[in-house]
Amino acid sequence: MCRILGIRNFSYHAHRALTEGFLELAEKGKVAEGDPPGHLDGWGIGYYRNGMPRVIKSGKPATGEATRINRLLKHAEHSPFFTFHLYKSAWNRRNTAKNAHPFKKGKYMLVHNGVIRDYRGLLRGIKAPGGILDTEALLYYLADSCSNGISFISAMNPVRNYYDYTSLNCIFFDGKKMHVLRQCRGNRGYYTLFRSDTGRSAVICSERIHGAGKWKPIDKGRCYAL
């Protein structure tokens, strides 16, 4: 389980308080009932340059790499799309940079909070590397679907209806839009998403944090394209 942040029209200076507030969730962020505190199994930052995503990830706690993270945030200045992810692994011994989010394929990028237990079914007929976990499998599925002209929400509908998951809360980037879905089965108090619009920027976060304007909860089952 994880904490996710997505911003359309990112500015290092304008969003600095917001990213600092998000970084605090590595230690203080809400966790599912019965889980130990913290989202300290890794982190990742993704942004776009010339229509393509750039991703930097680590398997170390974000709290110990704040200086490096701040430097990367400066590099992301003026990106049309930006995401920051704090990783809490649901899979044993998988807290590595490889398994941290975001994931990218071609022009597509994805962050996710939740578990898809039967995710291997997403890869039927799709060429993908071995050993990948649920979120990366979802990215390959979405990239294949969208490359064939299927919309994000149409691609997600069979996953929502027929797969075994805790949550599909995610932000999917296609280089032109930031697609946001809140979908969960149970534990609605943990699997939350909130939206804040400030000036030219739209912000999505797992929790209300300081540094943004008024936060509005996203209803279960709601999908946005921003």
CATH class: Alpha Beta
What sequence of helices (H) and strands (E) makes up the elements? EHHEEHEEEHHEEEEEE
Shape: globular
User: If helices are DSSP runs of H or I spanning 4 or more residues, what is the number of helices?
Assistant: 5
Strand elements, count: 12
Describe the structure.
There is one protein chain. The strands form two sheets. Strands 3-2-4-1-10-9-11 form a seven-stranded antiparallel sheet, covered by helices on one side. The chain has a five-stranded antiparallel sheet with strand order 5-6-7-8-12, with helices on one face. By secondary structure, it is of the alpha+beta class. It has five helices and twelve strands. The protein has helices spanning 16-23, 25-28, 66-75, 134-147, 152-162; strands at residues 2-8, 43-49, 52-58, 81-87, 103-105, 108-113, 169-173, 178-181, 194-198, 201-205, 216-217, 223-225. It has a single domain (2-225), classed as Glutamine Phosphoribosylpyrophosphate, subunit 1, domain 1, CATH 3.60.20.10.
